[in-house]
Amino acid sequence: MARGNNVQGPTDDVGAGIVTSASEIQGLFDACRVVLFDCDGVLVNSEPISLATLVDVLDHFNAPLSLRDVSDRFTGRSSSAPIEYIKTQTGRDVSAEFKPYYYKMLFDRYDRDLTKIDGIETVLTVLQARDIAFCISSSSSVERLEKTMQVTGLGPWFDGRVYSADFVENGKPAPDLFLHAADAMGYAQGDAIVIEDSVAGVTAARAAGMKCIGFVGGGHYADDREGASQRLYEAGADIVISDMSMLAQAIAV
Description:
Elements: H1 22-28, E1 34-37, H2 47-60, H3 67-74, H4 80-90, H5 95-113, H6 120-129, E2 133-138, H7 142-152, E3 162-164, H8 176-185, E4 192-196, H9 199-207, E5 211-215, H10 225-235, E6 239-241, H11 244-251
Parallel strand pairs: 1-2, 1-4, 2-3, 4-5, 5-6
Helix pairs in contact: 1-11, 2-3, 2-5, 5-7, 6-11
């Protein structure tokens, strides 16, 4: 079983076989000065929308994949990954066409369906009360992050502290984005905890020398939370949770 699955306690998260004690979370935060949040699947429940949209977009560009294959290949990755996949499959460079087509379809769906992850604003409130800094470190583009913040109303929480894969040469699973974000915030790697939902993101956090909390509470893991938890532990997550309210309770002052 995944590391942490045999830890019991009165405030444990026991959903889908995931069991992580509050004391484990508290221990991680003992030396924490800054939290780096991934966005999609961690702050907002966007992955079911974006993955389903990407299935449609790949089909449009004659490089079809199933929803499961899209999830396995592209969760946590920047748009360069599907663009490269299309080129490999079709020989066609769609760099100029991909984002406008994808974003038009995606943003229309965001306006209808995008929501915040349950409990995330409580976590942000607790971090603020504890004087722990936080920012976004996301594989999404600046344009997509701006749309996400506008639709969900999360923008004011992260004013001036939004870091995109657009800012670095190598996206996740390379550590570049997390190192850039920590440096821009004025903190060392050892001060940081990353909260991530993808194997690519967890891998990047560990490569950056940072602690990492895996999160499997997003809608894209609704049918496989235990399997997703196992994959994040195997990628190097220190702990994995499926409920942001548990995180808030564990670290509350």
